[in-house]
Amino acid sequence: MKKPHPCGANEWQIIRMGMDIRIKCVQCGRSVLLTRREFERSLKKILGAVED
């Protein structure tokens, strides 16, 4: 994300994708729900993909 989380971390894990996107802070574990539009505007770069 463009702005870091207040805990200081700048890495997020995507938990759910759909109309809304839920992301979780890797450092503190707090989850945030964003609209797809907000998420796409604030996305900086993708670090990697996790395969199931």
Automatic annotation (TrEMBL):
Protein name (record): DUF951 domain-containing protein
InterPro entries associated with the record: DUF951 (IPR009296)
